[in-house]
Amino acid sequence: MATIIEGEELIKNDEVKEMLKEHIKKNNLIGFPTETVYGLGGNSLSEISLKNIFKMKNRPVSDPIISHVYDIAQAFDQLYHINIYEKYIIYILNSNFSPGPLSIIAKAKECLPLILTAHTQFCAVRIPNNKIAREIIKICNIPIAAPSANKFQHISPTNSLHVYEEFKDENILIFDNGQCDIGIESTVIKIIKYKKQKEKNISNYNHNENTNCDEYNSDNEIIIDEEYEKECNTEINNLKCILNCNNDVSDFEVFEKLKEVFEMIKTGNILKESDENMKIMKNKITANILKYKNLYNYEIKIYRRGKYTKDDLKEVLNNTSLLNDIRVSIYKKIEFEKLNILKNKANNECGHSINSNRMDIARNENDNIDLSNNIANNESSMKSEVSPGTLLTHYSPVVSTYLIDIIKNKDEIISNSYNSKLLNIDLNKCVFLDIGNSFFEYEKNFLKYLNISYDNLEVNEQIKYVTKNFFLFLRKAENLAINNQAEYIFISIVNLKSLDELTLSIFDRIFRSASGKLFKVFINQYKQLEFFNN
């Protein structure tokens, strides 16, 4: 039976700490809070513990799990198998975005259980911005692997009761810390390196923002860093020598010392003439960084949108001298900004004037492909993903769920789509989840109506409010649908047509919660709602 424990008890009660350590030592699982959603956690280094996570969630092993650490030195020590330039990249990103909702995928140590990486050779790591989560990791002294604490493809949990509802019959400890602050999962990025290309090609890329990064250099991505493999076994001893560490110093302490030198390189601090040893350390580490920087071209690819955006990442990289030539791209399966339903937003002055055709995503000018089909086709191959959260059906209620959009001219959808037809839907058997009052005047048409209203908030706070509360409201909608035997859950996307990154992040979750399925609504002269399939 699941047990809920007040999170603060973990900090002040030694008995609870011992209970946690013993629980994890036995490869049992925990539910714990983060700033994003609650996680279902276990020992990242134990194959048995990881298998328990997959089994309890009914999660396919092709879907990798993020490991949580309390310090980036822990990731260098226990998880990552990367050269010193990549360590510096991760250090810089973490110094700007962590603790926080940024998960970084990089090459994994060979000793890690393959199930952690979905057999991809890469692992995702982040530092949660929640003191209870970090305390758990410190007490256990191991990375904690944790997907969201819900059954696979179900709605993500944002409080401890959600976790209890999912796993009340399981032997898990659930640490309560209230409602999550952000409400959606972390941004996930991958550090990718390529063989050096001709300078002409690189120049052309940098001047063309529209270059398809999935095709550019795709055959040349470096999976095995042969140069690093030559020196990885002696890396710690070499660092101890450079950093003037005693032989009895732990690997973790060596990486802690390395962080200090990274900080000197980052800030460009001019050291006192008398501190010659520190200058030598800085120069030697910089030389090692430059060796790998000059060997490869680097790219950061966003695999899952979240709080931190492409622009946020580019700003940090551009302002860091050794990293300002690293490009940032978006994984093609999450390019929701290319959906026609969003691309046509410029023509939509208000919710009732939306004119969009099929939800197509443009690969190039002559090649349009439906996004949901694109994702589904990738899934059908059962190829392991390098990042979590990229499956089409994700965050989904158990009741059939559809996105709802408004059209201004029903003749257009009929003429533009051969398969579109007027649907006979009993709205008294539908639960409607509105966002921003788009269907407020029609609330009595539905069996139940919920509204994520943000009327009293500043514009820049509205999308944050929706993001924080969407999964909470979606669970309420699901419970209402189940208890009232509803046939459908509808989610309005009328007010989610902005192309800013934060809106695209929550749109990603909403799109997947409905598996990309869409109904379009025409409001006729009698104020009646006419539903069309897409």
From TrEMBL:
Family in the record:
Belongs to the SUA5 family.
Q: Where is the YrdC-like domain?
A: 14-204
Single Gene Ontology BP annotation: regulation of translational fidelity
A single GO molecular-function term is: ATP binding
Q: List where this protein forms a coiled coil.
A: none
SUPFAM superfamilies associated with the record: YrdC/RibB
Q: What is its EC number?
A: 2.7.7.87
Where in the cell does this protein reside? Answer: Cytoplasm
What is the designated name of this protein?
Threonylcarbamoyl-AMP synthase
Key words, A-Z: ATP-binding, Cytoplasm, Nucleotide-binding, Nucleotidyltransferase, Transferase, tRNA processing
Superkingdom of origin organism: Eukaryota
Asked whether the keyword Lipid biosynthesis is assigned, the reply is no
- The residue range of the signal peptide is none
Catalytic activity field: L-threonine + hydrogencarbonate + ATP = L-threonylcarbamoyladenylate + diphosphate + H2O
Gene Ontology cellular-component terms for this entry are: cytoplasm
UniProt organism field: Plasmodium vinckei vinckei
